[in-house]
Amino acid sequence: MTHWWDGSQIYGSDPETIQKVRSVWRNGKNTGRLLPDGKIAVDVANRKLRYDSNGLPVTGFHDNWWTGLELVHTLFHLEHNSIINR
Q: In angstroms, how far is the first alpha carbon of the chain from the final one?
């Protein structure tokens, strides 16, 4: 477990989660292929988080999930990828 200010709630704090967050997802399944340029998994077309086959959001931390966290994580994911695109 790491401190909140390192961004681990978005990016993950262990290699497995970091890999999952930065991978290409198809139909709720991780392809294992990394997204280009350090991007993180987000459904850009629908402006929402990706979800795994268990219905959990693909993010660094999803315990105690609620609508407010959904909004903040979605905003951070979209903004992260937007900055990379510049």
A: 32
